[in-house]
């Protein structure tokens, strides 16, 4: 499988929603699609959740670290995980590898996000089984299109 790599430019966001609790569902379900957003940065997590909730109505799950990501993924079986690279407890590479090697979660698509777009990050992401590798900053509109493609077309 070829890992897709992307980068873009982030757009400013005003009036971000308040923080969400572990595993909370946001917004009405869209075609029964669950997306798990895993990022230790509350503002990025909330921006992405708000964008997906408002534009597509996906069922959004939230994780704040790699260990929580694995726990929620095993319980909820989302169709997609948007996973930050640098997080506490387990980083994105470790969480991705654990999920992709577990028969219970290996089918879940994973988009790995990072501010560190070094070639070795991309190679580690590919080795861990990530379906896409995206460098920050990125356009939220562009990212929304990539997410929609992953949940409808199969990356």
CATH domain topology: Rossmann fold
Q: In percent, how helical is the residue content?
A: 25-40%
Biggest sheet strand order reads 1-6-5-4-2-3
CATH class: Alpha Beta
Gap between N and C termini: 10 Å
Query: Largest sheet at a glance?
Result: 6 strands, parallel
CATH level-two architecture: 3-Layer(aba) Sandwich
Radius of gyration from the alpha-carbon trace, in angstroms? 14 Å
The coarse overall form would be globular
State the helix count: 5
CATH superfamily: Response regulator
Low-confidence stretches: 1-29
Kindly state the number of beta strands. Answer: 6
How much of the polypeptide forms β-strand, as a percent range?
15-25%
State the domain count: 1
- The structure class reads alpha/beta
Task: Write down the secondary-structure element order.
Answer: EEHEHEHEHEH
Give the overall pLDDT as a whole number. 80
């Amino acid at each position: 499988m070829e890992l897709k790599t992307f980068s873009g430019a982030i757009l400013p966001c005003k009036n971000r929603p308040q923080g969400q609790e572990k595993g909370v569902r946001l917004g009405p379900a869209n075609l029964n699609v669950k997306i798990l957003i895993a990022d230790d940065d509350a503002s990025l997590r909330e921006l992405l959740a708000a964008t997906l909730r408002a534009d597509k109505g996906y069922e959004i799950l939230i994780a704040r670290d790699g260990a929580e990501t694995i726990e929620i993924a095993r319980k909820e079986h989302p169709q997609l995980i948007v996973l930050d690279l640098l997080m506490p407890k387990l980083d994105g590479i470790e969480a991705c590898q654990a999920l992709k090697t577990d028969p219970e979660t290996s089918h879940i698509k994973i988009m790995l996000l990072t501010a560190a777009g070094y070639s070795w990050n991309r190679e580690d992401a590919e080795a861990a089984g990530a379906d896409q590798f995206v460098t920050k900053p990125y356009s939220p509109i562009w990212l929304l299109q990539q997410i929609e493609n992953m949940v409808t077309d199969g990356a």
